[in-house]
Amino acid sequence: MAREDEQQGDESDDADLVALAVEIFAMLADPTRVKIILTLIGGESSVNNLAVAVGKPSSAVSQHLAKLRLARILLTRQEGNRVYYRLANEHVAQLVTDALHQAEHSIGHPRHHARPVIREVESS
């Protein structure tokens, strides 16, 4: 009986995690949000700098940032009247990077597999 309860608890936990994962994918299913994540892989940034980087108005970027923050994908730091955004952890960066790698495979051009060719120098 205890084993059954434990198993049901694990299944319930798994179902909750799956539902949360789906919400995360839904949150990232927007080109502007993906561009924001890619920009923030390089480090924290202000709304204005992110707006320039993703080519969108600051007001639109600010709305996307608020949603990503509510989803606990981003964290903020305030300095004076400026707010700086950063990734909450490395997992969302890996998720977006992997999605781009999968997209490369889907179109048949996996650039991330390209390796520089190193040629041995023949001794004279």
Automatic annotation (TrEMBL):
KW Magnesium (keyword) present: no
Q: Which InterPro entries match?
A: ArsR-like_HTH, HTH_ArsR_DNA-bd_dom, Metal_resp_trans_reg, WH-like_DNA-bd_sf, WH_DNA-bd_sf
Coiled-coil features, chain-numbered ranges: none
The HTH arsR-type domain covers which part of the protein? 13-107
GO terms, molecular function:
DNA binding; DNA-binding transcription factor activity
Keyword list (alphabetical) reads: DNA-binding, Transcription, Transcription regulation
Question: Can you say what this protein is called?
Answer: ArsR family transcriptional regulator
The protein's organism comes out as Microlunatus phosphovorus (strain ATCC 700054 / DSM 10555 / JCM 9379 / NBRC 101784 / NCIMB 13414 / VKM Ac-1990 / NM-1)
